């Protein structure tokens, strides 16, 4: 079984794969995600905007991982998700007018037991962050609990994710 540091590095490597999402060449938040089984096996990896099926620019790494690559798998109880940036909690509409399901909902529906993030999303107010969603909604929406570790695994993990999203 590998340690958290190994999976954090894998998520960082995935995040480095992110490419521009617009004609101006702007790089979005670079986000990589890795799902790991309870016995330490790496199940799958993804990055923001990764081409996979009908996914494309702007699709979040967690969405691509859980919905596109794992097909909406709901049996991920006890699994750990490593992601470089706090998964989104915002509900609303997509660009084409469809309801937007936040990544935290996909995590809860899948039954993911633990989420290790590199950094909190600076654009999300604390009161609506993943911390609150995992602690409140997991109990309301499913029978599983989701535990959150925000940037606790190592200093290099926090530093790496921070530098990744401030580099040009």
Number of domains: 1
Helix content: 25-40%
Instruction: Give the rounded overall mean pLDDT.
Output: 77
Fourth CATH level, the homologous superfamily: Cytidine Deaminase, domain 2
Radius of gyration, whole Å? 15 Å
The computed structural class is alpha/beta
Report on this model:
This protein has 168 residues and is of the alpha/beta class. It has one domain (4-164): Cytidine Deaminase, domain 2 (3-Layer(aba) Sandwich). 30% of the residues lie in helices and 16% in strands. The protein has 5 helices and 7 strands; from the N terminus they run H-E-E-H-E-E-E-H-E-H-E-H. It has helices at residues 4-15, 61-69, 103-110, 130-141, 155-164; strands at residues 32-36, 42-47, 80-83, 92-93, 99-100, 114-117, 147-150. Strands 2-1-3-6-7 form a 5-stranded mixed β-sheet, with helices on both faces. A two-stranded antiparallel sheet has the order 4-5. A hairpin with a 5-residue loop joins strand 1 and strand 2. Helix 2 (61-69) packs across helix 3. It is globular.
